[in-house]
Amino acid sequence: MTRTLLSTERAQQAVGRLAWAAAWAGLVLGQLHALARHNTVDGRGDLRQPLTRWWSDPARQLLRPLLDWADPDTVYLTYGKIWLPVFLAFTLCAVVVYRRRRPTGWERLVWRVVLAGYALGCAAVLADYWTQWTSYSRLADAYFAVLTVPSLLVMLLGGTVLGVTLLVRGYRPLLPALLLAAQVPLAVGILAFTSMGSAALPTMFAFAVLGRRLALGQPVAGAVRPAAAPRAASPATPRVPSP
């Protein structure tokens, strides 16, 4: 069904626009979600990080009306619902890029693992935020262990391998491949400032860049470095007898 829905140029351009908009929404609203987390009992531990406390304390004071309209858990779970459309957007964009690129061999295997990780990430944010509304479910820890942690590992590690593979193969445009390849150090830096959801920002913006190209009708399949063609044996030069 997904193959049929994404088969037309118009549908793929719409996916590209969605991925571009969703990445920026995730960047902005994701920080509001992080601030909401810092007001919860579990999230107060994040404030032990000096960089997190440096921006979170004044931001929560400034944005108090957006954070105290209900109890902290309700606010946190409500803002967390933004992650499902964001994850769906970059996952659909990744599927479109994969189909246009038509990779083979090792790269095809890596793409399939990464796409499975993105799909698992969608399931994780669905379970984390759309099955919990005003308080945490008894299954919250199970969701985290079975869905969130595996999906995050596949996204970070599998995405890194994909980015490196694309760089080796001379993929263009260069920026998405660099963002994917540098996901782990970028995620470590991001987590020093904000919450776990924002660790996916490099992935979001890698496919946001490609999504914008899709929306503008520009190529996204990139370059595949061709295998070196065997050198044809030069025909033997006949000897000309000396006079």
Architecture overview:
By secondary structure, the chain is mainly α. The chain has eleven helices and no strands. Mean pLDDT is 90; it is low at 226-230.
What are the SSEs and their pairings?
Layout: H1 2-5, H2 9-38, H3 50-62, H4 64-67, H5 72-79, H6 83-101, H7 105-130, H8 140-168, H9 174-181, H10 183-191, H11 201-215
Oligomer: single chain
If helices are DSSP runs of H or I spanning 4 or more residues, what is the number of helices? Answer: 11
The shape is elongated
Largest sheet: none
Count of domains: 1
Give the overall pLDDT as a whole number.
90
Number of strands: 0
Helix content: 55-70%
For the termini, the CA-CA separation is 79 Å
Could you tell me the strand content as a percent range? Answer: under 5%
Question: From N to C, what is the helix and strand string?
Answer: HHHHHHHHHHH
Radius of gyration: 23 Å
Helix/strand/pairing category: mainly alpha
Indicate the low-confidence ranges by residue numbers: 226-230
Structure characteristics:
mainly alpha; elongated
How would you summarize what this structure contains?
The chain has 243 residues and is mostly helical. 68% of the residues lie in helices and 0% in strands.
